[in-house]
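Quick entry, no commentary yet.
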Amino acid sequence: MILGILGGIGSGKSTVTRMFADLGAKTLDADAIAHELIEREDTKSTLRQWWGDEIISEDGTVDRTKIAERVFSDAEELVRLERLLHPEVRARIEEKISEFKENNEKLVVLDVPLLASSTLRDFCDEILFVNSTEALRETRVKVRGWSPDELKRREAQQVPESDKKILANSIINNSGSLNETRQQVEDLYESLLAIDFTERE
């Protein structure tokens, strides 16, 4: 079974995903795949052509902060970057999903930041929304060096939270302690494994 995770930026989707992994679920992180792809020499060459050598750090890696500054202030640049990375991110995720199905894995969790607007949502049997207060989300993204304005600017590029909630089959409240969140994850994990999806086909 495939579980897709939705939520606002800073809601704790990655934290919830790790909790599912601790319980034995397989996980697929689209951001991690994209970060790997962006460091490939052919990708870096393309980015240099677009934006110059300044987007490459002194150690030779891509300066993702500078790229974020560009794409989250210019919708056209964001679309261009997505067109470069997303097809292969999707291909890798599809490949891993097929592999997990062949191995009869019980639960696969998709952590895809733009899942609500992605065709990858079609693979999901269930959708989970990770809920958290705006104040907490602002506090969490401060660790990334973001201001509240930066959070709002990036969220403006995504499907609104209210629309994401509508898509969800279940909601986890990640506004409390980690133990409270973990208990909700454990409860959902057990209930998902008990579903017979063959009855839905």
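second:
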Amino acid sequence: MRGEVEHADLNVADLDAAVAFLTTALPHFKVRHRGMTEEGVEWLHIGTDSTYLALNRLGAEDSSEFGRLNHVGFVVEDADAVKRRCLEAGYEEGFVTGPHPHRKRVYILDKEGLEWEFVEYLSGDVEKRNDYSDAYEVKS
């Protein structure tokens, strides 16, 4: 059974400064993708093909949220089974994404309201697994 930590999602004040620091400390890290949410928050994923940090740039008005952990993502064998077990145990579903041909993502809120992501990859091909063509499309 899998359960490796795949990524952590953090808020930062300056994406470029964070990239400069991380690529200095970890030269093998590369920016995998950079984008913008529907709400206008700039974000990026930086790391390797198999593990990364998701960084979100927040404005000065959000300074109390800098360095805040948004969620940790785990690679699992069966995202639907994780969702079913958690919902049956009384936990709530968090962020909901649209379908992707190469992965399933499930977000669950724990009793304290912390969000946890569980991703099941449907392809062993790194390019397909790390495809961002659906970035932040939200299922209605």
